[in-house]
Amino acid sequence: MMFDWLALTLFIVACLVIIYHHVGYPLLLRIMSRSHPTPTPYFHRHFTITPLDLMLPRICLVMPAHNEADTISDKIYNLGTLDYPDNKLRIIIVCDGCTDETADIARGAAKARENRHLTIDVVEKPENYGKVAVLNEAISLCDCDVVALSDVSALLSIDSLLVTASQLSEEDTGVVCGSYQFFQSLSAGEQAYWAYQRQIKTSESAIGATLGAHGAFYAFRHKLFERLPPDTINDDFVLPVNIVMKGYKCLYDPRIVAVELEQACNEMDFNRRKRIAAGNIQQAIRCIGLLQPRFGKIAFNFFSGKFLRPMMPVFLFLALLSSAWLSVEHWFFTLAFVGQLTAYVVSILYIVTGSQPVWKPLRVLYYIISGHLAMSIGLLRYAMGLESGQLKKVEPGSETKRSKGSTQGV
User: Fold this and answer.
1) Which pLDDT belongs to residue 352?
2) Is the pLDDT reported for residue 264 higher than 70?
3) How many domains does the chain divide into?
4) pLDDT (tens digit, 9 = 90+) per residue, 201-240?
5) Taken in order 325, 328, 330, 333, is the CA torsion positive or negative?
6) What is the pLDDT of residues 63-106, one digit of tens each?
7) d(CA 57, CA 62)
8) What gap in Å lies between CA 243 and CA 321, rounded to an integer?
């Protein structure tokens, strides 16, 4: 009987934590953020030079690139359309051990008539040192007020830098991030997931406690940057959180839109989610200081969202194991066990075959379950030391090639 009560307790606790993380936390956020603050107005410049340009901060946009020949030209032409003073924007493209024509294509696009007003530095690294090493070196050498990071494959809305500058005009704001959307249509599961994530970001920002950003685009005060540990996996979480822990806000502004051009296949998406999962457990361990009561709403958000997320596979396993134990006692637990097991087996079959369910509700359920399966694998890989950031060493004075712009090495 003691073991039955233990199993029942484990089942109830596991289910409550799972429900709280996925449903309870978002609902609490929406309740807490009912009184949305008025969005900070920004200067509508309309591509016209005015005296107000002098008040805008200098922005350095850094983009690490590894074999981005398919999208680098589109990105540069997109940057050429951004409404921001030419003398206040510098763009650094770091080709990190590219084996394709990324650098040459970037230089060609930079010389096009539509983009000649841009100050673009194209830097070539002879080897692939990894994103974190590139960011540490490039950001440390930037001479600007604000650093913006963006993926080569993501196009930015034309007023994104003006909105960023407006948000960072508030002294207590240290990081600004935007909405992540897709150019190509997504599956029902992906659409539901990203709508869910955008709602959480909106609610977190409304209470002034956003955590992390998406690498497609975010910006921060240069003076607040700290070099990242070389084995960092999810740099777009750790970097903003380091700034938040200094007492500054990280804000989400849906007026800033980053549109993803690329869409990964099912296998690539699953592998990507495994790596992100490993990063989630890494950041939960390294940023555990955020759970201190002095961080208030930030501590609440961190625990409910980022800290519990990598723990979900553990609670899901406990729910499965305890329901299996209790299945001999009551038909409810038999149904619970069979239902869970069926969902996992079917999801694994879809992952192996590279397909997805046809019925929309099942596709949403599959996307959620496959995410937790990826999280389980990522958790195990990180625990076994098989997943970490790239640790290649950047040798001092390593040979680089630069197109145009300043002579500073990056």
Assistant:
1) 86
2) no
3) 1
4) 989 988 888 888 999 999 999 999 999 999 999 999 999 9
5) positive
6) 999 999 999 999 999 999 999 999 999 999 999 999 999 999 99
7) 16
8) 40
Task: Assess whether pLDDT exceeds 80 at residue 191.
Answer: no
| Stretch 133-142: mean pLDDT | 93
Q: Which two tokens stand for residue 405?
A: 């712009």
Q: What is the mean pLDDT of residues 24-45?
A: 85
Backbone angles phi, psi at 45, to 5 degrees: -80, -35
Q: Are 6 and 14 in contact (CB under 8 A)?
A: no
Long-range contacts of 12-18 (CB under 8 A, 24+ apart): 13/315, 13/318, 14/315, 14/316, 14/318, 14/319, 14/322, 15/319, 17/308, 17/311, 17/315, 18/312, 18/315, 18/316, 18/319
Question: Rounded CA gap, 259 and 71, in Å?
Answer: 12
| Dihedral pair phi/psi, residue 213, rounded to 5° | -145, 175
**C-beta neighbour count of 315 within 10 angstroms:** 19
37 band by pLDDT with thresholds 50, 70 and 90: low
- pLDDT above 90: residue 150: yes
**Residue 97 located in a structural domain:** yes
Give domain status of residue 392, yes or no: no
State mean pLDDT over 156-181: 95
Answer yes or no: are the C-beta atoms of 103 and 402 closer than 8 Å. no
Q: Is the pLDDT of residue 268 over 70?
A: no
List the structure tokens of 249: 């806000």
- Residue for token digits 């992100």? 276
Residue 15 lies in a domain: no
CATH of the domain at 204: 3.90.550.10
Residue 98 located in a structural domain: yes
Beta pairing, strands 59-65 & 173-182: unpaired
Task: Print the domain residue range for 70.
Answer: 51-263
